[in-house]
Specification:
38% helix, 221 residues, alpha/beta, 8 strands
């Protein structure tokens, strides 16, 4: 992975504002390993731009259900690239790209709810009048399955690359916040999550921008 560029959140907001003001529907992808801060940064961008300019559509809405993962024998590694409906995600991005041309005035996207560890369908309304869709997820740059079809519909992809110790601390805190004990949180962070992180890290050079935020307390080296 090439060295990350140092950016402030304010600089990213202005980059996103330029995309939103280009005159056509644009899709911005935020990616990175688990715990990189994708959800937080994407939400901050959308909040800063406001609902008339931007809407957030996370990739996590396409988690396969726990029942499906159990049937496939993949429940113990939920979050891996083959535990998502990648074709469904690509199909949604296709609809979002077309809807701004007047084919659909309103598209509904699914949303992942961490408190129940399941996705809820048709939970996120996306009006055709909103010029910027911000999507975030781990596998936007993966070159297998339907992920390349999804990537082809994304106008810019930004890869977040915080220091590893910061990323691990965030992940363990997240796991504990949603009910895992300290030992189980560490097991997931250094096990399945880390294997996913290594795969995701190998895709970073395909991003338009590899970055490290300098206003979140993280080192910039």
């Amino acid at each position: 992975m090439r060295p990350p560029a140092s950016c402030t959140l304010a600089e990213l907001v202005e980059r996103a504002r330029v995309l939103a003001g280009s005159g056509d529907r644009r899709i911005l992808g935020i990616t990175g390993a688990p715990g990189a801060g994708k959800s937080t940064v994407a939400a901050q961008l959308v909040a800063a731009l406001g609902p008339e300019l931007a809407v957030l559509v996370p990739m996590d809405g396409f988690h396969l259900s726990n029942a499906v993962l159990e049937s496939l024998g993949r429940r113990d590694r939920k979050g891996a690239h083959d535990t998502f409906d990648d074709a469904g995600y690509a199909a949604l991005l296709t609809r979002l790209h077309r809807s701004a041309a007047g084919t659909e005035p309103l598209v509904y996207a699914p949303e992942f709810r961490r408190e129940i560890e399941e996705s809820v369908g048709s939970a996120l309304p996306v009006p055709a009048t909103v010029p910027l869709v911000v999507t975030e997820g781990n596998y936007l740059l993966l070159d297998s399955g339907a992920w390349p079809r999804a990537r082809a519909l994304v106008d810019q992809t930004w890869f977040l690359a915080p220091p590893e110790d910061v990323r691990h601390t965030r992940l363990m805190a997240r796991h504990e916040a949603y009910g895992k004990g300290p030992d189980e949180a560490r097991f997931w962070t250094l096990g399945s999550d880390q294997r996913n992180a290594e795969l995701i890290g190998s895709t970073a050079d395909r991003a338009d921008l590899v970055l490290r935020l300098v206003d979140d307390g993280a080192p910039t080296g």
